[in-house]
Amino acid sequence: MTQHEHNVLQTDSLHTKVLIIGGGPAGYTAAIYAARANLKPLQALGLQPGGQLMITTDVENYPGYSEVIQGPFLMDEMRKQAENVGTEMFEDTIIDVDFSARPFKVTTEDGKTIMAETVIIATGAKARWLGLESETKFRGFGVSACATCDGFFFRGKNVAIVGGGNSAVEEALYLTNHAEHVTLIHRRDHLRAEKIAQDRLFANKKITVQWNAAVKEVCGTENPYSVTYLVLEDTETHIESTLAVDGLFVAIGHDPASALFNGKLELDSEGYIVTEPNSTVTSVPGVFAAGDVQDKVFRQAVTAAGQGCMAALEAERFLSHQ
Fold this sequence. Notes:
elongated, alpha/beta
């Protein structure tokens, strides 16, 4: 616990101009901008400060670093930067929000009450995984949930991708820029993706579709870890087969961490917080949402950071007009 945290948690009732919920690239960047605007932000980091980047090993696409860096290192640097410019942080979970009147009333798991003039939500999302023990073992070593993040590491190799929606098809097409061959594995005999995306997929000679198939196990070597093949099961006949690949991408969707805001803010059919175009403004004036909790298109650390900046600037503007 930092000195900042200790001071913040002394009292059971707090008042802040800006409360930031979440501690990934969006949350930390919002904190940096809000603190530098002298808004003295309070940031609830939750149980997993750093978000999805804490389980990301090599980061090669975040601007400003000429060498490969580790996800946890990047998040630690952002956290220190936010603290150094004056953000007060605490590692507690928000369990209830009342957005019916300003200042907004927020309750933490420890039973503390925070009254906030504005709230920036940066709670992120989590990739859905297949739930296999072997998948967890090779995660970050050949198993990934982000083709745009990790496709580069599979130049000239054979990879597989699991899924049947738009993102699976788009990521399969993206992977053909790097991989020698891509096998799309789908548990049914038809895709859910839009027809135009399917047409592009079927026309690409570097892609094969394996219908009615499910990944049963990810197999490979252990020292160092690397994927060599998959065990597949036919979803109709239950006959098993193997597929030689160097990597597996899982594209079966993401779950935004928005359950806390259900019924309090407008969410879309998938649970993402709805924001105004080119903005982080939500359905409640004074509440802003940044990063993967509202962005299902790009889902990158750098775009989340950009949205965190936008949210802080919009919160500052909102406060100055009050």
